[in-house]
Amino acid sequence: MKHLLSAADLDLDAATLVLDTATEMAAMASREVKKLPTLRGRTVVNLFYEDSTRTRISFETAAKRLSADVINFSAKGSSVEKGESLKDTALTLQAMGIDGVVIRHPASGAPNTLSQWVDGSILNAGDGTHEHPTQALLDAYTMRSRLGQLKGLRVAIVGDVLHSRVARSNVLLLRTLGAEVTLVGPPTLVPVGVEDWPATVSYDLDSVLPGTDAVMMLRVQRERMGQAYFPSAREYSRRYGLDNRRVKLLPEHAIIMHPGPMIRGMEIAPEVADSPRSTIVEQVANGVSVRMACLYLLLGGK
Fold it and tell me: Cys-Cys link to 98, which of 19, 93, 141, 244 (CB 3.0-4.6 A)?
């Protein structure tokens, strides 16, 4: 595999290989010297056209732990602000002989386009409302390490599905790995055409929770909303927020997830976010191991 543009690029064997490799990478993280010489001499560019703290730092840490040279490119204050097109930026990267590009872009499909212009490997770190494949991989890795296996697992993805690239990538990857996904949210925040997704849809969170092994709360993406998709934050929280009362509806073993950044008190109650059943901090740590695995497998780690 040369690029990672979509969770749909991964079949069962490829997805399992990434998760198994990430397990080996996680074992390295507990050593005193965390660095591996695997990608020494390779150059990775973090090309971020959208703000991101978690994902950018996670990819940067991953590349540096594999001894790659990392160049961080933020669109703010760069030639992009002066009107340079994605193609011109790509040609610049191509001329510099870059080995890998991690790209986050507000336009859906930008990583695919970039892959046609650059010889190096492209990793999609989130494009528009389209996909975020490494987030889905780290979520699957977290579920596997907490719950043992993914086949037959029942996962509920709750909230702003419409604007969520995380939801889309998770649905695709979890289906490949044999899990069953239910999407839950207000009708206004469920995408048109969702009936073609390999998932079921419910508008009633309370009815879904008792049969769920992992519940993933999504951030309400106000910055992508032009108009009101729900009456008020309080109303949203009342129907779709995860509070202590709702947690009691979950089976004993179920875990609580959130891709971050989270709006405490709206999507998830603070005491739920900080509870032992929550994997939110673990997901961040696992993100580094999973992204190390992706970079290693794509950039020629043998």
Answer: 93
**Backbone torsions φ then ψ of 208, nearest 5 degrees:** -85, -35
Q: How far apart are the C-alpha atoms of 72 and 182, rounded to whole Å?
A: 37
Q: How far apart are the first and last CA of the chain?
A: 13
Spatial separation of the C-alpha atoms in residues 258 and 267, rounded to whole Å: 9
CA separation, residue 291 to residues 23, 197, 263, 285 (Å):
11, 26, 25, 10
Both structure tokens of 275: 């509870």
- Identify the band that residue 221 occupies on the pLDDT scale cut at 50, 70 and 90: confident
Superfamily holding 7-131+284-298: Aspartate/ornithine carbamoyltransferase (3.40.50.1370)
Q: How far apart are CA 65 and CA 35, in angstroms?
A: 5
pLDDT tens per residue, range 18-48 = 999 999 999 988 888 889 999 999 999 999 9
Q: Answer whether CATH 3.40.50.1370 is correct for domain 133-282.
A: yes
* Token code pair at residue 148: 């043992």
- Asked whether the whole model's pTM tops 0.85, one would answer yes
Q: Are 160 and 188 in contact (CB under 8 A)?
A: no
| Four-residue CA torsion sign, 167, 170, 172, 178 | negative
Pinpoint the residues of the chain covered by CATH 3.40.50.1370. 7-131+284-298, 133-282
Beta bridge partners of 183: 157, 201
